[in-house]
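Example record used in the benchmark description.
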Amino acid sequence: MNRNEMLSAVEDTSILWDFVVIGGGASGAGVALDAASRGFTVLLVEQSDFAKGTSSRSTKLVHGGVRYLQQGNVSLVFEALKERGILLRNAPHLVHDLAFIVPSYEWWEGPFYGIGLKVYDMMAGKEGFGHSKILSREETLKHLPNLEPKGLTGGVLYYDGQFDDSRLVINLLQTAVEQGATVVNYMQVQGLDKDKNLVSGVRMQDMETGKRYAVRAKAVINATGPFSDHILQMDQPGSFKMIEPSRGTHIVLDKSFLPGDHAIMVPHTDDGRILFAIPWHNRALVGTTDILTKDIPLEPRADQDEIDFLLAHTARYLKRDPKQEDVKAVFAGIRPLAYSGEDENTAAVSREHVVHVSASGLLTLAGGKWTTYRKMAEDTVDQAILIAGLEFQACVTRDLNIHGFHRHSDQFGALQDYGSDALEIQKLAEAQPELGEALCTDPTVLKAEVVWAVEHEMARTVEDFLSRRRRLLLLDAQKSVDLAEEVARLMAVKLNKSPDWVNQQTAYYQQLAQGYFVR
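Model output (structure tokens):
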């Protein structure tokens, strides 16, 4: 992906796009890929960087949703389990199975959760990631040596999926571009154009240059997640609310708190949520909270109460209790839940998606969950075809390999999340030995990855690379700050930026990263 090439298409005022998609997260990327792979002309624009918001701040799980089974939402679980299997087949370089253990501290918990997870296995059918089983106390502690042993009676083992969320968004967009889509980050929509009261295009501004653009479209799709209501207000001031925003927070700990390759699932926290502690990129990721909020910033911040909540609940289940000073990073995201019309605990709100068509023809995709992004996109494009008056073309993403597809990417070591692109990064490092040097270890990141991110993944800022192309900000905030200036220098060469830009980027990133520290 090359931003300058993408801008040349935006500047061509003769183009009447079939679809303009607003939003560059999981929903927007999925819609753009679905539409482009059906043969339609597609422009996707994102106000910041791709996956800047919710889509890079998840619990990193591709799962059917054990909690939804508890709630009796069988249809959503069936759908999510099916989509989980499809995603594993189409992006095996980013999605893999992960073993979870539900620890039992009461005599009835093993049989109770064992039966429920057997039902979960049966619902997955041939899409299953592995078979659940009841573990003895000794087996449980063998898999989870730092688990609190006092009162432990055993556990239940089951399997779900894990992935890297922002890497998947980038790969989805690369696949969309390969299918003919045009995608542009740092392009903010500032208004909707109408013809006879029907949406006919969008007005937007390049946040890098300040240049304004107007593009025409047969249909406009609002896939902006938490910001959906903002676009709806552009369409019709006073429009009803579609989003119930909820903030979820995670903390990241050293791997020593969760040695081994098994995750912990706690079925009930004090607020009724499920709590996960999972191994991720040689760290322990713990989350999440669920707090109703009215604020929807691009950079949501966790409250101290949420951090305390996660530390306290983690301490209940670990022999070695984590303290504030053990937290390597804290990050928060806003869930764009479909508005229920009631004030309630958002842990109980359905994660099913809604495709809404306004009187103007504006389509809005709201709600949903990461795992079902593909089905959400399929439903949205089916509706958009009708609105645009286009000839129907069937969805093909069920069997479409995602960019980077590689069945054995673990052979690439630290580069495995790039899948087949790892080979190209290795070639880049071999051709320019200085780029083969490591920026850092644990995780190992090569200088070549910075160059690759600029040239092929549309990274425009230090934050883009350290937070989303590589996950250093989330894995170790302090280490990412230490690398900021060097990353800025490497990017400046490829972006043709001045020393002042390097200084500005370094200073901005250092300030941004403060929100990921626990003080």
